[in-house]
């Protein structure tokens, strides 16, 4: 067994160098930087049509970085039936024609291959597996074997998602016109399956949608496009002799084509283009980088075609180049692009290779011309990239118009520079190298430090103006005897598609303060719920690899908000409360600073009354987590399935639901876990939350209406001034009424609705009063039976019964608040006008109809549809 952990990868492409292999190198490089040894099986024993089954490697390694070791699974030649003829027969008979006679032999061979895979991984000490193109049914026997080996190896070693499975091609996008892979729904192709050990990647949203439609219910899949290092390729002293070495005259435009030299790549189109350019008086040289030995017949065909078109003196077959920068004396693709005037990728309509050539040209600062193959628009065109395009659905060979466009680009240096700058900027935005690093960091994070107990998760979106201050407040946390031990906690910043300097500020802060572990990850799906979940899941994965010996030692996930600033002892007080109570969730106290409300006494009074009610209720009944600051014990988080992201319709589109923190707390409470209140753990709320939404606060619409929860952006740079005046007496009354109508069902009713046993605890009975506690408990049991609901924890199933109980017991609830908080809390706000004509004896009946009205959303609007202060 090797001493270093090992990444083992396999390419189903069966080629020494291809786009699939290039992308593997980029992914594997992230793990190599972490100290993993990298081994790659080129798939010679997978793909039948390459004629390389059981053939030993020769010089393939020279095209790969020196840190990659070429690998083969031992003993495959001894597996009964498993040879090139069998694999080709399965592809033709089983996959292509759905004849299942060979399937028993497929499964027998798969079992034998799985055994050999397992033994090989054990010998190597494999900790990460990368599968490239494993779903494309070139060899379903090997795919079945991989699934078997992955499940057994992952279970044996207690591994999480240790497999990165990426499909560059699928049946509907790889030679679809040939029928080679059968027809939809491709019944004999092994579908991607939900596995605790596999994360799947699609190259773009189109492929993601098609894959999940074919494999419904597939959850563990995300988009990871081909990625590139965006740095302009330049002529240097190392590659200055490139043209001379290949006999290319200086000053002559150079057209670069780097690809596999096979029929499907349609290099014949490049030759026709070259002839068309010559006819227009544009002299150019075409350089084809690729292995001419892969398909000698195609190379011979292209050579003959060049002679027939009389361009053979301007065509150079340069052989394989290193996929990026050469590491030895040879040349790489970027050396070619440094000298190139234009890159070409005129692939065929029915062979959709949409990866490296165009992307590498964009990243290297080289203009390109391409065919508009089926997925071109999905990957490049719809994002705004600029290039001459040949519509191969209409024209098989370059047209006069396409040739003219290429000629204009070749001969106009100013236009080439403008196109290059435009494409390069877009490329870095959409296909930047950080995408791979983010994926690796999230799915295979570095283990947490041995002494780390708390992971502070900070979702951020365009928070450059506040982020330094917030991060400083997290770094400057204090314990009982001075600065808090920074090995006790870490910070996970989740960048949710920021368009400002949020990510750069985070990196600078982390570099300037190496004593505090600060991690930056990305969450591509927009929404604070998604970002909070991503950060907490990241911390869970790292925490499970954390070495410690005390089985009673608890670790915590802590939510923070980039809109707020935490007090210096916030984290320590929260930690102490969690440790002493052994609760599953700890919630903080929140406050506004009085200095921000000078001269606004009516608004300040409305805010303070709400906060006083909370301070009275939460120590007795427990609170619910708010994203501004709460902690959850790691195993309790995992036990309830973590943060669950729900979706709602807004303006005809599905958007993330915004109450993930409350809904998570409800699920934890409903699962029998305890929630504790940590009053000395305090967070200062940014006053802009009130100032920029004050009119909505007054009308009870700060968080949306009609059952749709929306929080508009309230950043200080949002168009329109913040309201800085005080409330009128009428506005203050209305704001308070919405605030208390939101507070009471959620904080007095909901805890006992979810946990009726609370009504038997002495402190709760004393707070509510014995008679009221008994009547409330009896009514909860009646409503539970009447509504046929046995579980109030699913999202919003708690709203109707909470609203009903509030309306039925509002007088008693306000009596509790006046007794606990003060007479100024007053009495319940007026009922909706619709109750004016309801007979008193039928009041509870019509409360039910009102709260369960699915059409108007009136109950949501009456209760303000979310917290105010």
From TrEMBL:
UniProt cross-references to Pfam families, sorted A to Z: Glyco_trans_1_4, Glycos_transf_2
Annotated InterPro entries: Glyco_trans_2-like, Glycosyltransf_2, Nucleotide-diphossugar_trans
GO molecular function term, any single one: transferase activity
Chain coiled-coil ranges: none
Protein's UniProt keywords contain Repeat: no
Residue ranges occupied by any Glycosyltransferase 2-like domain in the UniProt entry: 455-621
SUPFAM superfamilies, alphabetized: Nucleotide-diphospho-sugar transferases, UDP-Glycosyltransferase/glycogen phosphorylase
Top-level taxon: Bacteria
CDD domains: GT4_PimA-like
Keywords: Transferase
Name of the molecule in the record: Glycosyltransferase
């Amino acid at each position: 067994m090797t001493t270093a952990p090992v990444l083992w990868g396999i390419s189903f492409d069966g080629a020494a160098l291809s786009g699939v292999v290039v992308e593997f190198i980029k992914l594997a490089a992230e793990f190599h930087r972490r100290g993993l040894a990298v081994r790659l099986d080129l798939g010679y024993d997978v793909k039948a049509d390459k004629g390389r089954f059981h053939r030993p490697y020769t010089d393939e390694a020279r095209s790969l970085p020196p840190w990659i070791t070429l690998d083969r699974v031992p003993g495959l030649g001894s597996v009964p039936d498993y040879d090139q003829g069998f694999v080709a027969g399965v592809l033709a008979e089983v996959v292509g024609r759905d004849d299942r006679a060979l399937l028993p032999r497929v499964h027998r061979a798969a079992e034998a291959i799985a055994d050999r895979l397992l033994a090989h991984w054990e010998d190597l000490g494999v900790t990460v597996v990368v599968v490239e193109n494993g779903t494309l049914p070139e060899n379903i026997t090997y795919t079945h074997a991989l699934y078997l080996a992955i499940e057994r190896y992952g279970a044996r070693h207690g591994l999480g998602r240790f497999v990165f499975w990426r499909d560059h091609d699928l049946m509907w996008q790889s030679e679809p016109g040939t029928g080679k892979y059968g027809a939809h729904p491709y019944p004999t192709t092994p579908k991607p399956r939900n596995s605790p050990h596999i994360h799947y990647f699609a190259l773009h949203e189109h492929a993601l949608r098609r894959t999940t439609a074919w494999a419904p219910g597939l959850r563990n899949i995300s988009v990871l496009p081909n990625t590139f290092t965006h740095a302009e390729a330049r002529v240097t002293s190392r590659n200055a002799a490139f043209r001379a070495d290949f006999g290319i005259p200086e000053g002559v435009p150079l057209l670069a084509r780097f690809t596999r030299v096979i029929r499907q790549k349609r290099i014949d189109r490049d030759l026709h283009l070259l002839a068309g350019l010559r006819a227009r008086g544009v002299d150019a040289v075409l350089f084809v980088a690729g292995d001419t030995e892969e398909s000698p017949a195609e190379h011979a065909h292209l050579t003959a075609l060049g002679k027939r078109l009389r361009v053979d003196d301007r065509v150079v077959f340069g052989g394989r180049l290193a996929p990026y920068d050469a590491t030895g004396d040879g040349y790489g693709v970027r050396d070619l692009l440094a000298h190139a005037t234009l890159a070409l990728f005129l692939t065929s309509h029915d062979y959709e290779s949409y990866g490296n050539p165009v992307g590498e040209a964009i990243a290297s600062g080289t203009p390109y011309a391409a065919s508009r193959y089926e997925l071109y628009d999905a990957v490049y065109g719809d994002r705004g990239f600029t290039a001459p395009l040949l519509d191969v659905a209409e024209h098989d060979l370059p047209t006069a118009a396409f040739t003219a466009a290429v000629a204009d680009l070749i001969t106009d240096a100013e236009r080439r520079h403008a196109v290059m700058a435009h494409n390069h900027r877009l490329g870095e935005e959409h296909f930047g190298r950080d995408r791979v690093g983010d994926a690796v960091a999230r799915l295979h994070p570095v283990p947490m430090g041995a002494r780390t107990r708390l992971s502070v998760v900070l979702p951020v979106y365009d928070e450059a103006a506040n982020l330094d201050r917030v991060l400083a407040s997290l770094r400057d946390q204090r314990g009982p005897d001075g600065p808090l031990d920074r090995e006790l906690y870490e910070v996970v910043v989740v960048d949710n598609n920021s368009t400002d300097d949020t990510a750069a500020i985070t990196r600078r802060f982390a570099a300037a303060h190496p004593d505090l572990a600060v991690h930056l990850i990305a969450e591509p799906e927009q929404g604070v719920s998604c970002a909070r979940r991503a950060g907490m899941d990241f911390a869970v994965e790292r925490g499970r690899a954390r070495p410690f010996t005390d089985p009673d030692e608890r670790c915590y996930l802590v939510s923070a908000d980039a809109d707020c600033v935490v007090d210096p002892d916030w984290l320590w007080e929260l930690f102490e409360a969690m440790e002493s109570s052994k609760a599953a969730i700890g919630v903080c106290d929140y406050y506004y600073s009085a200095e921000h409300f000078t001269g606004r006494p009516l608004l300040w009074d409305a805010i303070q009354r709400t906060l006083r009610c909370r301070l009275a209720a939460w120590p007795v009944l427990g609170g619910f987590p708010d994203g501004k600051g709460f902690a959850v014990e790691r195993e309790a988080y995992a036990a309830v399935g973590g943060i669950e992201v729900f979706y709602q319709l807004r303006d005809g589109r599905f958007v993330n639901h915004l109450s993930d923190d409350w809904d998570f707390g409800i699920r934890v409470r409903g699962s029998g876990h305890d929630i504790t209140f940590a009053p000395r753990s305090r967070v200062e709320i940014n006053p802009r939350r009130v100032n920029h939404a004050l009119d909505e606060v007054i009308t009870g619409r700060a968080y949306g209406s009609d059952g749709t929860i929306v929080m508009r952006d309230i950043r200080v740079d949002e168009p329109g001034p913040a309201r800085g005046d005080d409330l009128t007496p009428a506005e203050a009354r209305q704001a308070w009424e919405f605030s208390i109508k939101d507070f009471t069902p959620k904080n007095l009713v909901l805890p006992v609705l979810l946990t009726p046993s609370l009504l038997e605890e002495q402190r709760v009975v004393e707070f509510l009063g014995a008679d009221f506690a008994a009547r409330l408990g009896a009514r909860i049991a009646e409503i539970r039976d009447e509504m046929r609901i046995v579980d109030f924890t699913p999202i919003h199933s708690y709203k109707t019964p909470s609203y009903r109980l509030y309306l039925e017991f509002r007088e008693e609830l306000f009596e509790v608040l006046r007794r606990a908080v003060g007479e100024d809390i007053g009495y319940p706000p007026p009922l909706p006008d619709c109750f004016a004509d309801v007979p008193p004896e039928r009041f509870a009946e019509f409360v039910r109809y009102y709260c369960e009205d699915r059409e108007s959303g009136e109950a949501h609007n009456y209760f303000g549809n979310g917290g105010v202060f």
